[in-house]
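assembly run, all chains below
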Amino acid sequence: DTGVSQDPRHKITKRGQNVTFRCDPISEHNRLYWYRQTLGQGPEFLTYFQNEAQLEKSRLLSDRFSAERPKGSFSTLEIQRTEQGDSAMYLCASSTDSQEQYFGPGTRLTVT
Amino acid sequence: GEDVEQSLFLSVREGDSSVINCTYTDSSSTYLYWYKQEPGAGLQLLTYIFSNMDMKQDQRLTVLLNKKDKHLSLRIADTQTGDSAIYFCAEWGTGFQKLVFGTGTRLLVSP
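ok done. output:
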C-alpha cells in the first residue's frame, strides 16, 4: 500500500457546476478525514468518518457540501453549485484508532 | 477555544540548526504534531508528542513542549536544502476528532 490517494489531483470548473472528489485511505485505516486548505493557511477540518459513519461535520461544511463513505473504504466529497470561494486544496487523511493521521496529496480545485 | 499560532518565515544556512516555534491555546490538547508540506504536495507527518512529555528526539528532529506556557518547538539539526518547506504545528484536543493547524512557518534553507 503506497499511502492515501486522491483523485483527481487538479480540477478546474466553472462556477455553478458540481464536482466530486475521491479519497482512497490506507487499507487498514478505519478513520477518514477531509480538510480544506486555502492559500497561505493551514488545513481546516471539514468532516470525519469512522468506518462508514460520518461522526463529525464542521460548520464550514455548508449544505452544498456532502461527503460519503458507503462501504467504510473510499470516500467521496461532492460540492454542488460551486462558488469561487470554494477554490482551495481539499485534503484527505486516514488513521487507525491511533492519533497518527496520514495525508494524501490533495485535490486542487479552481472555480472560474 | 482552539487557536494555534506560528511565525510565518524562517531563513537559515545549510548546516545550521533551525528552530520553529508554535503556541497553542487549548490546555486540554493531548497530542501535538509537526507536519511538513512541500510545494503542491500533501502533508507529511514528521513527529508528534504526547502532552505528558517534555521532549522527544527522532534523528535530526527534537520536539520540546512547555505545557505551562503552551509552547511547542521543532528543532532541525544540520538543516539541509531539502528541508525547505512549510512546517505546520497542529494540536489534537480532547472532545473532538480533528487536528487544528497553525498557519505554517515557511523554512528557507540557503546553501
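The longest strand of chain A covers residues 88-95.

Chain A has a mean pLDDT of 94.

not gonna interpret more than that til we talk
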